[in-house]
Amino acid sequence: MSLADDAERLRDIALSVLSADLERGQRLRLRVGPLYADFSRQLVDVAALDTLLAVADHAELARFRRAFADGEPLNTTEGRAALHHSLRARADDVPEGSMRSAQAAATEASSRVQVWVRRLVDEGLGESQPVRDVVNVGIGGSDRGPRLLDAAIADPIHGPRLHFVSSIDAHRAADLIATLDPATTVVVLVSKSFHTEETLLNGRLFVDWLTAALGEAAMQRRVFAVTANVEAAQRFGVDGERCLPIWEWVGGRYSLWSAVGFSFALAHGIDTFRRLLDGAREMDRHFFSAPLAQNLPVLRGLIEHWNRVAREFRSRCVVPYDVRLTHLPAYLQQLEMESNGKSVRHDGVPVDLPTAPIIWGGVGTDAQHAFFQALHQGTQVVPVEFIGIIQPAHRHDAHHRVLLANLLAQSAALAYGDDTRDSDDPLAAHKHHGGNRPSTVILLDALTPEALGALLAMYEHSVFVEACLVGINPFDQWGVELGKRIAKDFLPALSSETAASTLDPVTQALIREIRSR
Questions:
Q1: From 26, 167, 226, 510, which residue has the greatest number of CB atoms within 10 Å?
Q2: In this structure, is residue 130 part of a structural domain?
Q3: Number of Cβ atoms within 10 Å of the Cβ of 188
Q4: Is residue 13 domain-shared with residue 47, that is, in the same domain?
Q5: Three state DSSP letters for 143-193
Q6: Over the stretch 464-510, which tens digit does the pLDDT of each residue have?
Q7: Mean pLDDT of the chain
Q8: Sign of the dihedral through C-alpha 420, 424, 428, 429
Q9: How far apart, in whole angstroms, are the C-alpha atoms of residue 384 and residue 491?
Q10: Structural domains counted in the chain
Q11: H-helix or E-strand spanning residue 276
Q12: Nearest of 294, 285, 286 to residue 28 by alpha carbon
Protein backbone atom coordinates (compact mmCIF):
# COMPACT_ATOMS: atom_id res chain seq x y z
CA MET A 1 0.00 0.00 0.00
CA SER A 2 1.37 3.44 -0.97
CA LEU A 3 0.64 6.81 0.59
CA ALA A 4 -1.41 7.68 -2.49
CA ASP A 5 -3.49 4.52 -2.02
CA ASP A 6 -4.05 5.34 1.64
CA ALA A 7 -5.06 8.90 0.79
CA GLU A 8 -7.56 7.68 -1.80
CA ARG A 9 -9.00 5.11 0.63
CA LEU A 10 -9.45 7.79 3.30
CA ARG A 11 -10.66 10.56 1.01
CA ASP A 12 -14.35 10.23 1.90
CA ILE A 13 -14.00 9.03 5.50
CA ALA A 14 -15.01 11.67 8.02
CA LEU A 15 -12.86 12.65 10.97
CA SER A 16 -15.82 11.84 13.20
CA VAL A 17 -15.51 8.22 12.07
CA LEU A 18 -11.72 8.13 12.40
CA SER A 19 -11.91 9.64 15.88
CA ALA A 20 -13.99 6.71 17.13
CA ASP A 21 -11.06 4.29 16.61
CA LEU A 22 -9.55 3.85 20.09
CA GLU A 23 -6.33 2.20 18.89
CA ARG A 24 -5.81 5.05 16.47
CA GLY A 25 -6.31 7.59 19.23
CA GLN A 26 -3.73 5.90 21.44
CA ARG A 27 -1.13 5.90 18.68
CA LEU A 28 -1.75 9.52 17.73
CA ARG A 29 -1.49 10.99 21.24
CA LEU A 30 1.85 11.30 22.97
CA ARG A 31 3.27 12.97 26.05
CA VAL A 32 6.96 13.81 26.43
CA GLY A 33 7.79 15.64 29.65
CA PRO A 34 5.81 18.91 29.77
CA LEU A 35 4.47 18.50 26.20
CA TYR A 36 1.31 16.67 25.17
CA ALA A 37 0.57 16.31 21.45
CA ASP A 38 -2.70 15.12 19.94
CA PHE A 39 -2.64 14.27 16.22
CA SER A 40 -5.96 12.41 16.27
CA ARG A 41 -7.71 15.11 14.22
CA GLN A 42 -5.38 14.52 11.29
CA LEU A 43 -6.80 12.70 8.26
CA VAL A 44 -4.84 9.52 8.87
CA ASP A 45 -5.70 6.07 10.22
CA VAL A 46 -3.65 3.21 11.68
CA ALA A 47 -2.98 1.65 8.29
CA ALA A 48 -1.77 4.95 6.84
CA LEU A 49 0.41 5.50 9.90
CA ASP A 50 1.99 2.09 9.31
CA THR A 51 2.62 3.07 5.69
CA LEU A 52 4.31 6.26 6.87
CA LEU A 53 6.56 4.25 9.18
CA ALA A 54 7.43 2.04 6.21
CA VAL A 55 8.32 5.19 4.25
CA ALA A 56 10.59 6.20 7.14
CA ASP A 57 12.27 2.79 7.04
CA HIS A 58 12.77 3.05 3.29
CA ALA A 59 14.32 6.51 3.76
CA GLU A 60 16.66 5.03 6.40
CA LEU A 61 15.47 7.53 8.99
CA ALA A 62 16.89 5.51 11.89
CA ARG A 63 20.34 5.50 10.27
CA PHE A 64 20.26 9.24 9.61
CA ARG A 65 19.07 9.87 13.16
CA ARG A 66 22.07 7.95 14.50
CA ALA A 67 24.42 9.81 12.16
CA PHE A 68 22.97 13.11 13.37
CA ALA A 69 23.42 12.08 17.01
CA ASP A 70 27.02 11.02 16.34
CA GLY A 71 27.97 14.28 14.64
CA GLU A 72 28.55 12.93 11.14
CA PRO A 73 28.83 15.60 8.39
CA LEU A 74 25.22 15.57 7.19
CA ASN A 75 25.48 19.08 5.71
CA THR A 76 26.96 17.69 2.52
CA THR A 77 26.88 20.85 0.39
CA GLU A 78 29.03 22.73 2.90
CA GLY A 79 31.05 19.75 4.04
CA ARG A 80 30.29 20.03 7.72
CA ALA A 81 28.29 18.49 10.53
CA ALA A 82 25.21 20.04 12.13
CA LEU A 83 26.05 19.95 15.82
CA HIS A 84 23.60 22.42 17.32
CA HIS A 85 22.20 19.78 19.68
CA SER A 86 25.64 19.65 21.32
CA LEU A 87 24.95 23.16 22.63
CA ARG A 88 22.50 21.77 25.18
CA ALA A 89 24.23 18.41 25.76
CA ARG A 90 26.34 17.33 28.71
CA ALA A 91 29.66 15.55 28.41
CA ASP A 92 28.19 12.12 29.18
CA ASP A 93 25.49 12.59 26.50
CA VAL A 94 27.80 12.57 23.50
CA PRO A 95 30.19 10.07 21.90
CA GLU A 96 33.87 10.65 21.28
CA GLY A 97 34.77 12.63 18.18
CA SER A 98 33.29 15.79 16.72
CA MET A 99 30.32 15.79 19.07
CA ARG A 100 32.55 15.58 22.14
CA SER A 101 34.77 18.46 20.98
CA ALA A 102 31.72 20.54 20.02
CA GLN A 103 30.14 19.94 23.41
CA ALA A 104 33.37 20.97 25.15
CA ALA A 105 33.53 24.17 23.08
CA ALA A 106 29.90 24.89 23.89
CA THR A 107 30.55 24.40 27.61
CA GLU A 108 33.49 26.81 27.52
CA ALA A 109 31.44 29.40 25.64
CA SER A 110 28.57 28.98 28.09
CA SER A 111 30.98 29.69 30.94
CA ARG A 112 32.05 32.92 29.23
CA VAL A 113 28.42 33.95 28.78
CA GLN A 114 27.81 33.26 32.47
CA VAL A 115 30.84 35.32 33.52
CA TRP A 116 29.77 38.32 31.46
CA VAL A 117 26.14 38.13 32.55
CA ARG A 118 27.07 38.07 36.21
CA ARG A 119 29.72 40.75 35.78
CA LEU A 120 27.32 43.11 34.04
CA VAL A 121 24.55 42.44 36.54
CA ASP A 122 26.80 42.75 39.59
CA GLU A 123 29.18 45.50 38.47
CA GLY A 124 27.29 47.34 35.75
CA LEU A 125 29.19 49.44 33.23
CA GLY A 126 31.49 51.32 35.58
CA GLU A 127 31.04 54.70 37.21
CA SER A 128 28.00 53.32 39.08
CA GLN A 129 26.12 52.85 35.81
CA PRO A 130 23.79 49.81 35.79
CA VAL A 131 22.71 48.07 32.60
CA ARG A 132 19.15 49.22 31.97
CA ASP A 133 18.79 48.40 28.25
CA VAL A 134 20.22 45.70 25.98
CA VAL A 135 19.98 46.03 22.20
CA ASN A 136 20.29 42.81 20.17
CA VAL A 137 21.40 43.70 16.64
CA GLY A 138 21.07 40.75 14.25
CA ILE A 139 18.83 39.30 11.56
CA GLY A 140 17.37 35.89 10.76
CA GLY A 141 18.31 33.34 13.39
CA SER A 142 20.33 36.00 15.21
CA ASP A 143 17.05 37.82 15.84
CA ARG A 144 14.06 35.49 15.65
CA GLY A 145 15.27 33.05 18.29
CA PRO A 146 16.17 35.60 21.00
CA ARG A 147 13.08 37.66 20.16
CA LEU A 148 10.84 34.62 20.65
CA LEU A 149 12.52 33.73 23.94
CA ASP A 150 12.23 37.25 25.33
CA ALA A 151 8.50 37.48 24.65
CA ALA A 152 7.75 33.94 25.79
CA ILE A 153 9.48 33.76 29.16
CA ALA A 154 7.89 35.58 32.05
CA ASP A 155 10.12 35.32 35.10
CA PRO A 156 10.59 37.14 38.40
CA ILE A 157 13.98 38.61 37.43
CA HIS A 158 13.70 42.31 36.75
CA GLY A 159 16.68 42.62 34.46
CA PRO A 160 17.42 45.10 31.70
CA ARG A 161 14.89 45.81 29.00
CA LEU A 162 15.69 43.87 25.84
CA HIS A 163 15.26 45.47 22.41
CA PHE A 164 15.73 44.05 18.92
CA VAL A 165 16.97 45.68 15.73
CA SER A 166 17.01 43.49 12.63
CA SER A 167 15.77 45.20 9.48
CA ILE A 168 17.95 47.36 7.24
CA ASP A 169 15.12 49.89 7.49
CA ALA A 170 16.69 52.54 9.74
CA HIS A 171 13.38 53.69 11.22
CA ARG A 172 13.59 51.07 13.97
CA ALA A 173 17.18 51.84 14.97
CA ALA A 174 16.67 55.61 14.85
CA ASP A 175 13.46 55.49 16.88
CA LEU A 176 15.06 53.21 19.48
CA ILE A 177 18.20 55.32 19.86
CA ALA A 178 16.00 58.32 20.62
CA THR A 179 14.64 56.52 23.70
CA LEU A 180 17.90 55.14 25.15
CA ASP A 181 20.51 56.46 27.55
CA PRO A 182 23.93 55.57 26.11
CA ALA A 183 25.46 55.41 29.59
CA THR A 184 23.22 52.49 30.61
CA THR A 185 22.90 50.64 27.29
CA VAL A 186 24.66 47.46 26.11
CA VAL A 187 24.68 46.59 22.40
CA VAL A 188 25.13 42.99 21.22
CA LEU A 189 26.07 42.53 17.54
CA VAL A 190 25.18 39.02 16.38
CA SER A 191 26.61 37.77 13.08
CA LYS A 192 28.42 34.49 12.55
CA SER A 193 30.37 35.79 9.56
CA PHE A 194 30.44 39.41 10.73
CA HIS A 195 29.74 40.30 7.12
CA THR A 196 25.94 40.48 7.39
CA GLU A 197 25.06 43.79 5.75
CA GLU A 198 22.00 44.60 7.85
CA THR A 199 23.79 43.87 11.12
CA LEU A 200 26.89 45.88 10.23
CA LEU A 201 24.95 48.94 9.06
CA ASN A 202 22.71 48.91 12.12
CA GLY A 203 25.68 48.13 14.35
CA ARG A 204 27.55 51.13 12.97
CA LEU A 205 24.67 53.39 13.98
CA PHE A 206 24.90 52.18 17.58
CA VAL A 207 28.69 52.20 17.76
CA ASP A 208 28.85 55.76 16.39
CA TRP A 209 26.07 56.86 18.76
CA LEU A 210 27.85 55.44 21.80
CA THR A 211 31.23 56.83 20.71
CA ALA A 212 29.84 60.32 20.10
CA ALA A 213 28.10 60.35 23.47
CA LEU A 214 30.69 58.65 25.68
CA GLY A 215 33.99 58.29 23.83
CA GLU A 216 35.64 55.22 22.32
CA ALA A 217 36.78 53.60 25.57
CA ALA A 218 33.30 53.76 27.09
CA MET A 219 31.78 52.51 23.83
CA GLN A 220 34.01 49.44 23.91
CA ARG A 221 32.78 48.59 27.40
CA ARG A 222 29.22 48.54 26.08
CA VAL A 223 29.48 46.67 22.77
CA PHE A 224 29.64 42.88 22.49
CA ALA A 225 29.79 40.60 19.46
CA VAL A 226 28.65 37.02 18.97
CA THR A 227 30.60 35.79 15.97
CA ALA A 228 32.88 33.22 14.41
CA ASN A 229 34.95 36.04 12.91
CA VAL A 230 36.61 37.75 15.87
CA GLU A 231 39.12 39.62 13.69
CA ALA A 232 36.35 41.31 11.71
CA ALA A 233 34.55 42.24 14.92
CA GLN A 234 37.71 43.77 16.34
CA ARG A 235 38.27 45.78 13.16
CA PHE A 236 34.71 47.03 13.62
CA GLY A 237 35.66 48.34 17.06
CA VAL A 238 34.58 45.53 19.40
CA ASP A 239 36.95 44.65 22.24
CA GLY A 240 38.27 41.10 21.74
CA GLU A 241 37.37 40.09 25.29
CA ARG A 242 33.77 40.96 24.51
CA CYS A 243 33.60 38.68 21.45
CA LEU A 244 31.63 35.54 22.29
CA PRO A 245 32.03 32.52 20.01
CA ILE A 246 29.78 30.75 17.60
CA TRP A 247 30.94 28.11 15.12
CA GLU A 248 30.44 27.13 11.51
CA TRP A 249 28.66 23.95 12.62
CA VAL A 250 25.78 25.98 14.08
CA GLY A 251 23.28 27.28 11.53
CA GLY A 252 21.67 30.61 12.33
CA ARG A 253 18.17 29.17 12.68
CA TYR A 254 19.51 26.65 15.22
CA SER A 255 21.70 29.11 17.13
CA LEU A 256 19.57 30.44 19.99
CA TRP A 257 21.09 27.74 22.26
CA SER A 258 24.56 29.26 21.81
CA ALA A 259 25.99 32.63 22.82
CA VAL A 260 23.35 34.04 20.46
CA GLY A 261 21.21 33.73 23.60
CA PHE A 262 23.53 36.13 25.47
CA SER A 263 21.16 39.10 25.28
CA PHE A 264 18.30 36.92 26.53
CA ALA A 265 20.44 35.58 29.39
CA LEU A 266 21.44 39.11 30.35
CA ALA A 267 17.81 40.24 30.49
CA HIS A 268 16.29 37.11 32.03
CA GLY A 269 19.13 35.54 33.99
CA ILE A 270 21.65 32.82 33.25
CA ASP A 271 19.67 30.26 35.26
CA THR A 272 16.62 30.82 33.04
CA PHE A 273 18.76 30.29 29.95
CA ARG A 274 20.15 27.05 31.38
CA ARG A 275 16.65 25.78 32.12
CA LEU A 276 15.78 26.39 28.47
CA LEU A 277 18.77 24.26 27.44
CA ASP A 278 17.77 21.54 29.89
CA GLY A 279 14.30 21.30 28.35
CA ALA A 280 15.76 20.99 24.87
CA ARG A 281 18.23 18.36 26.10
CA GLU A 282 15.40 16.17 27.38
CA MET A 283 13.70 16.35 23.98
CA ASP A 284 17.02 15.45 22.33
CA ARG A 285 17.30 12.38 24.54
CA HIS A 286 13.77 11.34 23.63
CA PHE A 287 14.30 11.89 19.89
CA PHE A 288 17.58 10.00 19.71
CA SER A 289 16.40 7.01 21.77
CA ALA A 290 12.64 6.46 21.47
CA PRO A 291 11.29 3.97 18.89
CA LEU A 292 10.10 5.73 15.77
CA ALA A 293 6.44 4.85 16.37
CA GLN A 294 6.51 6.38 19.87
CA ASN A 295 8.74 9.33 19.02
CA LEU A 296 7.13 12.76 19.17
CA PRO A 297 9.31 14.60 16.61
CA VAL A 298 9.12 11.59 14.29
CA LEU A 299 5.34 11.30 14.59
CA ARG A 300 4.92 14.99 13.90
CA GLY A 301 7.29 14.79 10.93
CA LEU A 302 5.38 11.83 9.50
CA ILE A 303 2.07 13.67 9.83
CA GLU A 304 3.49 16.74 8.09
CA HIS A 305 4.88 14.52 5.31
CA TRP A 306 1.43 12.92 4.94
CA ASN A 307 -0.30 16.28 4.67
CA ARG A 308 2.12 17.55 2.06
CA VAL A 309 2.73 14.45 -0.05
CA ALA A 310 -0.46 12.38 0.27
CA ARG A 311 -3.07 15.06 0.94
CA GLU A 312 -1.34 17.75 -1.16
CA PHE A 313 -1.81 20.53 1.39
CA ARG A 314 0.67 23.28 0.61
CA SER A 315 0.58 25.44 3.72
CA ARG A 316 0.23 25.10 7.49
CA CYS A 317 -1.22 27.60 9.92
CA VAL A 318 0.36 27.88 13.39
CA VAL A 319 -1.87 29.42 16.07
CA PRO A 320 -0.57 29.64 19.64
CA TYR A 321 -3.29 30.49 22.16
CA ASP A 322 -0.95 32.55 24.30
CA VAL A 323 0.25 36.07 23.49
CA ARG A 324 3.66 35.19 24.90
CA LEU A 325 4.16 32.98 21.84
CA THR A 326 3.38 35.79 19.40
CA HIS A 327 6.70 35.29 17.60
CA LEU A 328 6.43 31.50 17.26
CA PRO A 329 4.90 31.49 13.74
CA ALA A 330 7.68 33.76 12.43
CA TYR A 331 10.33 31.64 14.15
CA LEU A 332 8.91 28.49 12.55
CA GLN A 333 8.76 30.19 9.16
CA GLN A 334 12.52 30.44 9.14
CA LEU A 335 13.16 27.10 10.81
CA GLU A 336 11.02 25.13 8.37
CA MET A 337 11.09 27.12 5.15
CA GLU A 338 14.81 27.91 5.20
CA SER A 339 15.66 24.35 6.20
CA ASN A 340 13.39 22.43 3.83
CA GLY A 341 12.52 24.93 1.12
CA LYS A 342 14.68 23.05 -1.39
CA SER A 343 14.10 21.58 -4.85
CA VAL A 344 17.06 19.19 -5.13
CA ARG A 345 18.19 16.22 -3.10
CA HIS A 346 21.51 15.77 -1.29
CA ASP A 347 23.04 14.56 -4.55
CA GLY A 348 21.78 17.49 -6.65
CA VAL A 349 19.06 15.47 -8.37
CA PRO A 350 15.69 17.28 -8.53
CA VAL A 351 13.40 16.16 -5.73
CA ASP A 352 10.19 14.53 -6.93
CA LEU A 353 8.10 15.29 -3.83
CA PRO A 354 6.78 18.56 -2.38
CA THR A 355 9.10 20.01 0.24
CA ALA A 356 8.50 22.78 2.79
CA PRO A 357 4.96 24.13 3.14
CA ILE A 358 4.23 27.82 3.52
CA ILE A 359 4.17 28.51 7.27
CA TRP A 360 1.96 31.31 8.52
CA GLY A 361 -0.26 32.07 11.47
CA GLY A 362 -1.39 34.36 14.24
CA VAL A 363 -2.27 34.36 17.91
CA GLY A 364 -5.36 32.93 19.60
CA THR A 365 -8.69 34.65 19.45
CA ASP A 366 -7.17 37.58 17.53
CA ALA A 367 -6.49 35.13 14.69
CA GLN A 368 -10.06 33.83 14.94
CA HIS A 369 -11.31 37.33 14.15
CA ALA A 370 -8.91 37.73 11.23
CA PHE A 371 -8.51 34.66 9.01
CA PHE A 372 -10.38 31.72 10.56
CA GLN A 373 -13.27 32.38 8.17
CA ALA A 374 -11.08 31.05 5.37
CA LEU A 375 -9.87 28.12 7.47
CA HIS A 376 -13.44 26.98 8.12
CA GLN A 377 -15.16 27.71 4.80
CA GLY A 378 -12.51 28.57 2.22
CA THR A 379 -11.81 26.39 -0.79
CA GLN A 380 -8.24 25.62 0.34
CA VAL A 381 -7.87 23.16 3.20
CA VAL A 382 -5.09 24.34 5.51
CA PRO A 383 -3.94 22.12 8.39
CA VAL A 384 -3.76 24.07 11.64
CA GLU A 385 -1.40 23.55 14.55
CA PHE A 386 -2.88 24.80 17.82
CA ILE A 387 -0.55 25.40 20.78
CA GLY A 388 -2.09 25.88 24.21
CA ILE A 389 -0.74 26.46 27.72
CA ILE A 390 -2.60 24.64 30.50
CA GLN A 391 -1.40 26.73 33.46
CA PRO A 392 -1.10 30.47 32.77
CA ALA A 393 1.32 32.84 34.47
CA HIS A 394 -1.53 35.03 35.74
CA ARG A 395 -4.38 34.53 38.20
CA HIS A 396 -7.28 35.44 35.91
CA ASP A 397 -8.73 31.94 35.67
CA ALA A 398 -11.95 33.01 33.96
CA HIS A 399 -10.02 34.55 31.08
CA HIS A 400 -7.89 31.45 30.70
CA ARG A 401 -10.83 29.05 30.69
CA VAL A 402 -12.42 31.04 27.87
CA LEU A 403 -9.13 31.03 25.98
CA LEU A 404 -8.72 27.25 26.24
CA ALA A 405 -12.39 26.71 25.39
CA ASN A 406 -11.84 28.65 22.18
CA LEU A 407 -8.78 26.59 21.28
CA LEU A 408 -10.66 23.33 21.81
CA ALA A 409 -13.73 24.62 20.00
CA GLN A 410 -11.83 25.73 16.91
CA SER A 411 -10.10 22.37 16.55
CA ALA A 412 -13.43 20.54 16.96
CA ALA A 413 -15.25 22.85 14.55
CA LEU A 414 -12.62 22.37 11.88
CA ALA A 415 -12.82 18.60 12.31
CA TYR A 416 -16.54 17.96 12.59
CA GLY A 417 -18.22 21.01 11.10
CA ASP A 418 -21.91 21.77 11.48
CA ASP A 419 -24.25 20.38 8.84
CA THR A 420 -27.00 22.94 8.25
CA ARG A 421 -27.69 22.10 4.61
CA ASP A 422 -31.06 20.48 5.35
CA SER A 423 -32.24 23.42 7.42
CA ASP A 424 -35.15 25.63 6.34
CA ASP A 425 -32.90 28.64 6.89
CA PRO A 426 -32.49 30.42 3.53
CA LEU A 427 -28.87 31.11 4.50
CA ALA A 428 -28.14 27.47 5.32
CA ALA A 429 -25.62 27.11 2.49
CA HIS A 430 -23.74 30.18 3.68
CA LYS A 431 -23.64 28.94 7.26
CA HIS A 432 -22.60 25.40 6.39
CA HIS A 433 -19.31 24.15 7.89
CA GLY A 434 -18.21 21.02 6.06
CA GLY A 435 -15.59 20.02 8.61
CA ASN A 436 -13.01 17.32 7.90
CA ARG A 437 -10.26 19.94 8.13
CA PRO A 438 -7.21 18.58 9.95
CA SER A 439 -5.51 20.06 12.97
CA THR A 440 -3.04 19.18 15.69
CA VAL A 441 -3.24 20.29 19.32
CA ILE A 442 -0.04 20.68 21.33
CA LEU A 443 -0.43 21.46 25.03
CA LEU A 444 2.30 22.64 27.38
CA ASP A 445 1.74 22.18 31.11
CA ALA A 446 3.03 25.73 31.60
CA LEU A 447 5.20 28.07 29.57
CA THR A 448 8.36 27.43 31.55
CA PRO A 449 11.88 27.66 30.10
CA GLU A 450 12.05 23.85 30.15
CA ALA A 451 8.77 23.46 28.26
CA LEU A 452 9.73 26.09 25.69
CA GLY A 453 13.11 24.44 25.17
CA ALA A 454 11.43 21.07 24.64
CA LEU A 455 8.90 22.57 22.21
CA LEU A 456 11.54 24.25 20.05
CA ALA A 457 13.78 21.17 20.03
CA MET A 458 10.77 19.09 18.97
CA TYR A 459 10.25 21.39 15.99
CA GLU A 460 13.95 21.22 15.08
CA HIS A 461 13.94 17.44 15.05
CA SER A 462 10.65 17.25 13.15
CA VAL A 463 12.16 19.41 10.42
CA PHE A 464 15.10 16.99 10.25
CA VAL A 465 12.70 14.04 9.95
CA GLU A 466 10.81 15.70 7.11
CA ALA A 467 14.08 16.41 5.29
CA CYS A 468 15.14 12.78 5.59
CA LEU A 469 11.84 11.56 4.15
CA VAL A 470 12.36 13.53 0.92
CA GLY A 471 16.16 13.25 0.81
CA ILE A 472 17.14 16.92 1.10
CA ASN A 473 19.76 18.78 3.13
CA PRO A 474 18.03 20.88 5.83
CA PHE A 475 21.24 22.55 7.01
CA ASP A 476 22.17 24.84 4.09
CA GLN A 477 20.38 27.87 2.62
CA TRP A 478 21.76 28.68 -0.81
CA GLY A 479 18.48 30.26 -1.83
CA VAL A 480 19.11 33.39 0.22
CA GLU A 481 22.33 34.30 -1.61
CA LEU A 482 21.22 35.36 -5.10
CA GLY A 483 19.02 38.26 -4.04
CA LYS A 484 21.73 39.62 -1.74
CA ARG A 485 24.28 39.48 -4.55
CA ILE A 486 21.98 41.24 -7.01
CA ALA A 487 21.21 43.96 -4.44
CA LYS A 488 24.91 44.87 -4.41
CA ASP A 489 24.78 45.25 -8.20
CA PHE A 490 21.66 47.41 -8.00
CA LEU A 491 22.91 49.74 -5.27
CA PRO A 492 25.06 51.99 -7.54
CA ALA A 493 22.14 52.35 -9.95
CA LEU A 494 20.10 54.18 -7.32
CA SER A 495 22.50 57.13 -7.60
CA SER A 496 23.97 56.77 -11.10
CA GLU A 497 22.16 56.88 -14.42
CA THR A 498 25.10 55.14 -16.07
CA ALA A 499 24.97 52.19 -13.69
CA ALA A 500 21.20 51.88 -14.17
CA SER A 501 21.55 51.63 -17.94
CA THR A 502 22.99 48.12 -17.70
CA LEU A 503 20.01 46.66 -15.83
CA ASP A 504 16.90 44.92 -17.13
CA PRO A 505 14.05 47.15 -18.40
CA VAL A 506 11.70 46.53 -15.45
CA THR A 507 14.37 47.38 -12.88
CA GLN A 508 15.36 50.48 -14.88
CA ALA A 509 11.74 51.69 -14.84
CA LEU A 510 11.45 51.15 -11.09
CA ILE A 511 14.72 52.98 -10.44
CA ARG A 512 13.62 55.90 -12.62
CA GLU A 513 10.45 56.17 -10.54
CA ILE A 514 12.42 56.05 -7.27
CA ARG A 515 14.92 58.67 -8.44
CA SER A 516 12.17 60.94 -9.76
CA ARG A 517 10.85 61.41 -6.25
A1: 226
A2: yes
A3: 27
A4: yes
A5: HHHHHHHHHHCCCCCCCCEEEEECCCCHHHHHHHHCCCCHHHEEEEEECCC
A6: 999 999 999 999 999 998 998 999 889 988 888 777 778 899 999 99
A7: 94
A8: positive
A9: 41
A10: 3
A11: helix 270-289
A12: 294
Active site residue 513: no
- In which domain, by residue range, is 503 found? 480-516
Under 8 Å CB-to-CB from 168, ≥6 apart: which residues? 197, 198, 201, 202
User: Distance between CA atoms of 20 and 436, rounded to whole angstroms?
Assistant: 14
Buried b or exposed e, range 413-444, using 16+ CB within 10 angstroms: bbbbbeeeeeeeeeeeeeebeebbbbbbbbbb
Q: Which of 369, 396, 399, 431 is catalytic?
A: 369
How far apart CA 275 and CA 183 sit, in angstroms, is 31
pLDDT band of 420, cuts 50, 70, 90: low
Query: Which contiguous run of DSSP H or E holds residue 340?
Result: helix 339-340
In Å, how far from its chain's centre is CA 309?
23
User: For residue range 317-326, what is the model confidence (pLDDT) as tens digits?
Assistant: 999 999 999 9
134 to 154, 159, 184: CA distances (angstroms)? 17, 10, 9
Regarding whether 491 and 471 lie in a shared domain, the answer is no
Of 235, 251, 268, the one marking the end of a domain is 268
Residue 156's pLDDT is 59
CB 29 within 8 A of CB 430: no
Please tell me whether residues 151 and 290 are part of one structural domain. no
Task: Judge contact between 327 and 151, C-beta under 8 A.
Answer: yes
Quick check: is 108 in a domain?
Answer: yes
> Catalytic residue among 195, 396, 399, 484, which?
484
Confidence category of residue 62, pLDDT binned at 50, 70, 90:
very high
Q: Which of 66-80, 308-322, 448-462, 489-503 has the lowest mean pLDDT?
A: 489-503
Is 399 designated active site? no
The CATH number that applies at residue 102 is 3.40.50.10490
Q: From CA 181, how far away is CA 94, in angstroms rounded?
A: 45
- The answer to whether residue 77 is domain-embedded is no
Write the pLDDT tens digit of every residue in 40-57: 999 999 999 999 999 999
The three-class DSSP label of residue 420 is coil
Pairing of strands 35-38, 29-32: antiparallel
Residue 127 φ then ψ, to 5°: 55, 35
Query: Residue 474 corresponds to which amino acid?
Result: P
**Same domain for 92 and 208?**
yes
SS3 per residue for 34-93: CEEEECCCCCCCHHHHHHHHHHHHHCCHHHHHHHHHHCCCCECCCCECCCHHHHHCCHHH
Q: Is 96 a catalytic residue?
A: no
- How far CA 411 is from CA of 34, 67, 206, 259, in Å, comes to 21, 37, 46, 38
Segment 272-299 mean pLDDT:
98
| Contact criterion met (CB below 8 Å) for 294 and 48 | no
* Residues 17 and 125 grouped into a single domain: no
Residue at 430 is within a domain: no
Cα torsion 513, 515, 516, 517: sign: positive
Tally of helices (H runs) and strands (E runs) in the chain: 24, 11
Marked catalytic residue, from 304, 338, 450, 466: 338
Question: Residue 259's beta-bridge partner residues?
Answer: none
